[in-house]
Specification:
The chain has 139 residues and is α/β, with parallel strands linked by helices. The chain has a single domain, classed as 5'-nuclease (Rossmann fold, 3-Layer(aba) Sandwich), CATH 3.40.50. 50% of the residues lie in helices and 10% in strands. It is built from 7 helices and 5 strands. The chain has helices at residues 8-16, 21-31, 40-50, 59-72, 93-102, 116-119, 127-137; strands spanning 3-6, 35-38, 74-75, 106-107, 124-125. Strands 3-2-1-4-5 form a 5-stranded parallel β-sheet. Strand 4 (106-107), helix 6 and strand 5 form a beta-alpha-beta unit. The two termini are 15 Å apart. The relative contact order is 0.20.
């Protein structure tokens, strides 16, 4: 199974731009082509951000995708406190913590939010890099 942590910006972009790499990732998440590694903090952020009125996303479609992600996810135990240091925004810590715990890449459209000094060896991939990697594995 192809597992990764997907930053919220990837999921939002997948809804807003369904034909690009983030859109492909959301389709894979929805249909089981990839497995999201997450914890309760990440799931709550997905739900909160995708529900924002500014995005005007159809609630039934959002719920369908979130249900699929939740059902197929590889769950990591949520940390009580942030263990990652050196991030510009500590709200990004759950994504890096889950990627570290599971030993999987972190897919984000904002790699600058995760400086190498804080990443602790976690591989950072853009959505395009993640899609290209998976496509290169196809028969």
């Amino acid at each position: 199974m192809n597992r990764a942590v997907f930053d919220t910006n990837v999921v939002v972009s997948g809804f807003l731009s369904p034909t690009g790499p983030p859109g492909r990732i959301v389709e894979w998440l929805r249909h089981g082509g990839v497995q999201a590694v997450l914890d309760d903090r990440i799931m709550a952020e997905y739900r909160g951000v995708l529900s924002r009125a500014v995005f005007q996303l159809p609630a039934p479609e959002v719920e369908l995708v979130l249900t699929a992600i939740r059902a197929r996810a590889f769950w990591i135990e949520a940390a009580a406190v942030h263990t990652v240091r050196g991030l510009p925004d500590l709200d990004d810590a759950p994504f890096l913590e889950c990627a570290q715990a599971a030993g999987v890449p972190l897919v984000t459209g904002n790699t600058r939010h995760y400086p190498k000094s804080a990443a602790g060896g976690v591989e950072l991939l853009t959505p395009a890099q993640f899609v290209a990697r998976l496509k290169s594995k196809e028969p």
